[in-house]
Design a protein that fits this description.
The chain is of the alpha+beta class. It has one domain (3-164): 3-Layer(aba) Sandwich (NADH Oxidase). The chain is built from seven helices and four strands. The protein has helices spanning 3-9, 23-34, 53-62, 67-71, 93-111, 124-131, 161-164; strands spanning 45-50, 74-80, 115-116, 138-146. A four-stranded antiparallel β-sheet has the order 1-2-4-3, with helices on both faces. Helix 1 packs across helix 5 (93-111), helix 2 packs antiparallel against helix 5 (93-111) and helix 3 (53-62) runs antiparallel to helix 6 (124-131). It starts with a helix and ends in a 6-residue tail after the last helix. Bound molecules: flavin mononucleotide. Flavin mononucleotide binds at residues 11-12, 14, 66, 117-121, 154, 156.
Length: 170
């Protein structure tokens, strides 16, 4: 599968099989995140791999009770061990860098027949408490990972090209 095919095939998966994810596949997905670019190569991302069923259930509760989050065999909790560095352009590095790593990871997952869903609706302090995350570390996203129960290709709802691309000036 080439990168463009993986981009086209990726979709948010909200139903998972209970089938376990092989260790080497998990490793390959995380490796794709590890190789992502980051501002000044800071690599502030840290990933907590949660397999324990009860912990996944509690994470799902902390994620607005989105039950499917806990139904995937793995939840990747994407954190940033950050000094809060802000780039000259005014943007904080860590949410951007973690997002790039997660995007690498989601595309690698597609290649391996796995599904993911970015979860941004969660209570950070509850997640930190559940996983004993140190106070200074930020939790950027939760990401269930598992085999999708439905392998159909979803039609993407996206703005038309001409609405989002401008040439030469705004
Ligand atoms: C930053 C971010 C936060 C999101 N948070 C959630 C979430 O909490 N729950 C959920 O079910 N989907 C969440 N999504 C998934 C989006 O709804 C989904 O990506 C979007 O509708 C496009 O659909 P697709 O991913 O299938 O292409 C999130 C996506 C992003 C990028």
């Amino acid at each position: 599968m080439d990168v463009l095919d993986a981009i086209r095939a990726r979709k948010s998966v909200r139903k998972y099989l209970s089938k376990a994810v092989e260790e080497e596949k998990l490793r390959a997905v995380l490796e794709a995140g590890r190789l992502a670019p980051s501002a000044s190569n800071r690599q502030e991302w840290r990933f907590i791999i949660v397999r324990d069923g009860e912990t996944r259930r509690r994470l799902a509760e902390a994620a607005n009770n989105q039950a499917f989050v806990g139904e995937a065999p793995i939840v990747i909790v994407a954190c940033a061990e950050t000094d809060g560095h802000v780039m000259q352009c005014g943007q904080a590095c860590y949410p951007i860098d973690v997002a790039i790593a997660l995007d690498h990871l989601t595309l690698a997952a597609v290649e391996l027949g796995l599904g993911t869903c970015w979860i941004g609706a969660f209570d950070e302090s509850r997640v930190k408490q559940i996983l004993s995350v140190p106070a200074e570390v930020r939790v950027v996203a939760l990401m269930p990972l598992g085999y999708p129960s439905d392998s159909s290709v979803a039609k993407k709802k996206r703005l038309p090209f001409d609405e989002i691309v401008k040439y030469e000036r705004w």
